[in-house]
Amino acid sequence: MRREFTRWSMFCSSAFRALEEPTVDAQCQIVSLAKFTGATMARYLNVSLKRFHAIEVTRIAIGNQKLVYVLTANRKFKYPHGKSFIAYIGTTKRGIRRVASSAASHSEDILSEYGVKKITARIIVCKRRPNVKTWVKLERALLLVFREIYGEVPTFNLQGHKIKETDGFDYFKREKLRKVLIELA
Questions:
Q1: Average of per-residue pLDDT values in the chain
Q2: Taking Cα atoms as reference points, which of 67, 78, 182 lies closest to residue 124?
Q3: Which is higher by pLDDT, 142 or 15?
Q4: CB 69 within 8 A of CB 102
Q5: What is the C-alpha separation between 120 and 99, in angstroms, rounded?
Q6: What string of H, E and C letters represents the secondary structure of 136-154?
Q7: C-alpha to C-alpha distance for 65 and 130, rounded to whole angstroms
Q8: What sign does the dihedral 150-168-136-59 (CA atoms) show?
Q9: What is the pLDDT of residue 98?
Q10: What per-residue confidence (pLDDT) applies to 13?
Q11: Which residues, 6+ apart, have CB-to-CB distance to 87 below 8 Å?
Q12: 93 near 66, Cβ under 8 Å?
């Protein structure tokens, strides 16, 4: 406020000095001229480019429409039987679009946790079998193995807390799934 006042007073004093005898009409013209020229104009806003990526997309999941994805954070979450970077395990039949929308929808909750600054989406795929939704079986099996290792399903999975073992392990080896989850964790 003080800065604008001094700029305004400097403009008015120089304008009055230019006139020999300032009249009321001349004073009104000076005031309207000052407003027009921007003597009280606000400063420009700063623009800055952030150093890190907000979203980075690779070609890894373009060919696979039906897949399982795991959202991991840069900080480990506490579970009853240990700690893991895994925050969410999900599945999609819409491909990478669903992964991006899920990461965006869960990002506010995950990033609000203490110390979490980054979320990464990892893709897990399997081969197809006729008349079997293998991506759904894979997600269920991963949730069951995660619960076996850490005592409960990932923190941000709303479903799967009461999941029961079905025929998922007829299609996938339990040891292989355990190895994948430990590699992510």
A1: 81
A2: 67
A3: 142
A4: yes
A5: 11
A6: HHHHHHHHHHHHHHHCCCC
A7: 16
A8: positive
A9: 86
A10: 53
A11: 71, 72, 73, 77, 106, 110, 119, 154, 155, 156
A12: yes
Q: Two tokens at 75?
A: 């900080």
Which tokens belong to 115?
């110390």
* Residue 94: C-alpha distances to residues 58, 70, 91 (Å): 16, 15, 9
Q: What is the pLDDT of residue 25?
A: 53
Q: Are 185 and 85 in contact (CB under 8 A)?
A: yes
**pLDDT tens-digit series, residues 86-98:** 999 999 888 888 8
Half-sphere exposure of 140 (CA within 13 A, CB side): 16
Token readout for 103 is: 């990461």
SS3 call for 79: strand
Checking if the pLDDT of 175 tops 90, the result is yes
